[in-house]
Amino acid sequence: MPTAKFKRVMVKLSGEALMGDQEFGISPEVIGYVASEIRSIFDLNVEVALVIGGGNIFRGIKGSSYGMDRTSADHMGMLATVINSIALCDALEKQGMPTRVQSAIAMHEIAEPYILRRALRHLEKKRVVIFAAGTGNPYFTTDTAAVLRAQEIHAEILFKATKVDCLFDKDPECNSDAQPITSITHKQVLERELRAMDTTATSLAMDNKLPIGIINMLTPGNICKAVCGETIGTYIGD
Ligand code: UDP
């Protein structure tokens, strides 16, 4: 059995990662796969916190582009993350991981409210904690929520699980000469305007020295390798 390098980690999953080949929503196969990947690190006795986005259902910026008020659209986006969090909780529990959803927007009937001390207690008791509804504020993203919560719970690292292998020096979809980046500082990411995360999330991580690992979640075993300290994807830190 491999040995984990970290005791407590935050994993950020994009909502789109749950779509699979679909245009919208949640693929049952994909969410089952994601849960099995999380299981692989849970089994290493690592304390796991998760944040999942809502882009497979609704993004505030898209709503505001149709003329919706941005705050109302972001409220919808945050509710989308709650839908994904409940689905992920169900998938994790089906694979034997006790899981709690804590929401930044109060909705007592379906999720616990976000209470840091209670979240820490869950983690210590080896329950997976999913932080839903982002930061609870409009104009933010779930990347920022993941950085914020990672710091609050003193996670040692944030893994951003994506559909690409790593960060590139330019967009690989438009530039055939794009070069992969294995290691970079937060400051360089900001200066070079690389889209690892949004700038708010990256600068919050930089100011508080939170390392970020960019990994491809679609490659089975990647998250386990990363948690065991193997160099895969991109490491953002000093
Ligand atoms: N959102 C928000 N505040 C937050 C986090 C998220 O308003 O603190 C809203 C925002 O509208 C965003 C949506 O929730 O577009 C879904 O989150 P995100 O776009 O980060 O999801 P992902 O791209 O990771 O699927």
UniProtKB/TrEMBL annotation:
Signal peptide: none annotated. Gene3D superfamilies: Acetylglutamate kinase-like. Its EC number is 2.7.4.22. GO terms for biological process: 'de novo' CTP biosynthetic process; UDP biosynthetic process. ATP binds at K12, L13, S14, G15, G55, R59, T162, F168, D171. Its main location: cytoplasm. This is Uridylate kinase.
